[in-house]
Amino acid sequence: MATHHSRSAARLMMAPAVVLLLGWMLVPLTMTLYFSFKKYLPLRGGDLGWVGFDNYVRFVSSSAFWPSVLTTLTIVGGVLVITVVFGVLLAILLNQPMWGQGFVRILVIAPFFVMPTVSALVWKNMFMDPNYGLLAHLWEFFGAQPVEWLSQASLQSIVMIVSWQWLPFATLILLTAIQSLDSEQLEAAEMDGAPALMRFAFITLPHLGRAIAVVLLIQTIFLLSIFAEIFVTTGGAFGTKTLTYLIFQRVLESQNVGLGSAGGVYAIILANIVAIFLMRIVGKNLDK
Amino acid sequence: MGQIKLSKVSKRFGDVEVIPPLDLTIADGEFTVFVGPSGCGKSTLLRLIAGLEDITSGSIQIDGTDTTDVPPAKRGLAMVFQSYALYPHMSVRKNIAFPMRMAGVPAQEQDRRIAAAAEALNLTDYLDRRPGQLSGGQRQRVAIGRAIVREPQAFLFDEPLSNLDAALRVGMRMEISELHKKLQTTMIYVTHDQVEAMTMADKIVVLRAGVIEQVGSPLDLYHTPCNEFVAGFIGSPKMNLIKGAEAQKHGVATIGIRPEHVEVSSTAGLWHGTVGVAEHLGSDTFLHIHGVAGCDPMTVRVDGELPVKHGDEIYLTPQNDKLHKFDGQGLRVD
């Protein structure tokens, strides 16, 4: 019933949301682009005029750039693999009928409600502290030398913290997908002679394809910009400096807004490259 | 070979006994239909035979081998599900190939069997499509194809036609019957539709609340139902069951007469009533007659040409040799 009248009314009513969304996105984007072509040092003379592509060249030629890109991709990739693999396993587990199912499901989802800063602090102080952390006690109990997680295995530690936060999200989406699987299909496969692992590979996993694609895409968007977990744990030291963190350092620690803005533009490009790759790999699942 | 023998098989879900111990033998090559109202345990019984549910007590033998604890895949049975249960992400060819792939059948043999099954089921042009691109009837045939290629000891059908429209259902009924004539394999078919049971079966098993009420050929059940339940369940429209004074005259609690065994007259007869709804099917007309003592309304089948309408006075006379008599427990009296 989309008459001409109702269509224009609909446009009018959507306008505030669209304007707000565009403003939210376009203003920072334009400002980032604007500053990226300027030499702008707030504490050392302010706006020092246009410099062309100087900032872009300097940002890329910095020795910290490529390692930061690699770190970003490692963290994103690591977290995606861990959350999807364990998410599928947990979803299958939670889909089994068991006593206290509702309560267990709430427990599993709980980490998602903890703020990134808080969860990173909890991990850092309660679990990973080499002197009084729980893991240190565990190691000592077995007579081993406690691991200094955040300095010896810094990248793995951060992947672990972030995976812990995002696992509930993946589990939740995959669980709903598993619940929509027709049980007769599994029974048919069982009659057809497929053992449990084959049934998982040929029936369950293809059924989850679309949900996995959604999990990968949504998580990638958020994981490319993780910041709090790094800020409160390693502060970018021990090889955990992601692109986001490098930009933060350029803008706030070096007080070089122009250089940081150029980094921001690179971050946009990186995000798009990753997104295109992901869409190519998993996006075709979404069409089915 | 596919003789299936159930001995003292029972099934409980928690405290509920859905199938009390029952015995049943299905001969090799026989087309057996389990029929009964919803929730009578007929699908559960099929799933027990398939091995998809564990039996609580008793034993199941297939071809003389005890298969009670044999997993479903090793029983040599193929099942066609109500929802067809096709694998949506696989093409028709891969769907049909799946059981052979799991069994490790060589590729050439797979291709040969797929081609034969597709030929038999008119699926040759659709082999590379996905199930989502097929109509209901085609999906049904793919499900049957997937069962055929396994060359099973017996086929199990779980209400396979209930998702099809009426015209298609009649067509598929014929196709399944023809398939049975051609393959001569044991088939067990579950349905709640007594027409499907009557038209397809060599042997009908009527179930109620998990208990076998009667086993016999379609005409056996039609002519000599062993109790009121079977009498009312087999035959369409349902048998008229008359209680009270009329039954007393025959010395029993209930008498039954099928709608097709009542003679109609406008002038004289044993019973008298008023025509209510008249269902004109063309060839026949079903009259629902009100005012007959002990059975209201009584259904009567008359010739489609007979000029009757709502409100007409009418006289009825049952054919005495077609009368069924049942005692106070509902059991047949001869």
Topology:
The complex is a heterodimer of chains A (288) and B (334).
Chain A: H1 4-36, E1 38-41, E2 46-50, H2 54-61, H3 65-95, H4 101-109, H5 116-127, H6 134-141, H7 149-152, H8 154-179, H9 183-191, H10 196-223, H11 228-233, H12 243-253, H13 257-282, H14 284-287
Antiparallel strand pairs in A: 1-2
Helix pairs in contact in A: 1-13, 2-13, 3-8, 3-10, 3-12, 5-8, 8-10, 9-10, 10-13, 12-13
Chain B: E1 4-13, E2 16-26, E3 31-35, H1 42-50, E4 57-62, E5 65-66, E6 77-80, H2 92-103, H3 107-120, H4 136-148, E7 154-158, H5 166-183, E8 186-191, H6 194-200, E9 203-208, E10 211-216, H7 218-223, H8 228-233, E11 240-243, H9 245-249, E12 254-257, E13 262-265, E14 271-280, E15 284-290, E16 298-303, E17 313-318, E18 324-326, E19 332-333
Helix pairs in contact in B: 2-3, 2-4
How would you explain this protein's 3D organization?
- The complex is a heterodimer of chains A (about 290) and B (about 325).
- Chain A is mainly α.
- The mean pLDDT of chain A is about 85.
- Chain A has a two-stranded antiparallel ribbon.
- Chain A has helices at about 5-35, 55-60, 65-95, 100-110, 115-125, 135-140, 150, 155-180, 185-190, 195-225, 230-235, 245-255, 255-280, 285; strands at about 40, 45-50.
- In chain A, helix 3 crosses helix 10 (about 195-225).
- Chain A has one domain (about 55-285): MetI-like (MetI-like fold, Orthogonal Bundle), CATH 1.10.3720.10.
- Chain B folds into two domains: about 5-230, P-loop containing nucleotide triphosphate hydrolases (Rossmann fold, 3-Layer(aba) Sandwich); about 240-334, Nucleic acid-binding proteins (OB fold (Dihydrolipoamide Acetyltransferase, E2P), Beta Barrel).
- Chain B contains nine helices and 19 strands.
- Chain B has helices at about 40-50, 90-105, 105-120, 135-150, 165-185, 195-200, 220-225, 230-235, 245-250, and strands at about 5-15, 15-25, 30-35, 55-60, 65, 75-80, 155-160, 185-190, 205-210, 210-215, 240-245, 255, 260-265, 270-280, 285-290, 300-305, 315-320, 325, 330-334.
- In chain B, the strands form four sheets. A six-stranded mixed beta sheet of chain B has the order 6-7-8-3-9-10, with helices on both faces. A five-stranded antiparallel beta sheet of chain B has the order 13-17-14-15-16, with no helix packed on it. In chain B, strands 2-1-4-5 form a four-stranded antiparallel beta sheet, covered by helices on one side.
- The relative contact order of chain B is 0.12.
- Chains A and B meet through helix 9 and helix 10 of A and strand 6 and helix 2 of B.
